[in-house]
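User: Okay, second chain of the day. Same drill as before: sequence in, C-alpha cells out.
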Amino acid sequence: MARLLLPEAVLSGRSAAVLWGVDLAGADDDVECTAPLACRAGAVRGVRVSRRALARDAVTRRGGGRVTTPLRTALDLARLDPLEEAVVALDRFLRAGLVTPIELAEAATEVVGPGCRRIRRAVSLADGLTESPQETRLRLILWASSLPRPAAQYTVRSADRAFVARVDFAWPEHKVAVEYEGIWHGKRQNVAKDRRRLTELRAAGWTVVFVTAADLHDRATLVARIAAALRAPRSA
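Assistant: Same drill. C-alpha cells below.
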C-alpha cells in the first residue's frame, strides 16, 4: 500500500524486518516506510513515513519492491524505544544470520547525529545467541545486575565429557544454570524429555534455576534467587 500511495517510498523499520523474515510487526500495525526529503505527499492512513535521505547501498529489492537492506534495517531498529526492544530486534536479526556482529558494530560506529549513542548502546548489548525475545530480556536483566556475566547457550558435559544438555545461561564454575520456561514447557509432548534432561543435569551436579515470564517483572527477586544459587555449596 505504501508503494502505491508513495511511489518513491522504501519499506523500512518493522515493516522491512517482516520482509526479511523477522516478525516484528502485526497485521494491524502501520506500514513503516522512508521517503526522500523532497517528497511532499500528505499523510496516509495506516502508513508511517520517515523523511530522510538513504544511501544507495542501504536500499535493495525484495518482494517486488524497494526495502532497506538488512544492515540498514537493523540500524533503524536499534533506535526503538525502550532500549530493551531495540536489543530484542537486533538479537533476532543476528540470530537469523541477516547481519553479523562485526558488520553491525562497524556500521554503528559510522552513525552520526541524533540517536547515534543509543544505536551504539543497543548494538553493544546484542549478541544473537538467545533463541527468543524473552531470553534476550532475561539476559539484559542478568547483565544489568551485580551478578557475574553468565555464559550463553552453554554446553554441559559429564565428568567423562559426554554431552548432558545445552542451557540458556550458565556459571560453569558454580554449576548453576538458568533456563527460561519456554524451553521446558512449550510443548507437552516434550515433558518426559525435559524431565530426563533435568535429571541428567542434576546428576552431573548442576543446579537449575527456572525463570518464567512473571519473574521478568520482579527483577530484584529473580536476581536474589540466582545469587542464592551461586552462593550455595557446589556439588561434587
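The mean pLDDT is 91.

User: Thanks, on to the next one.
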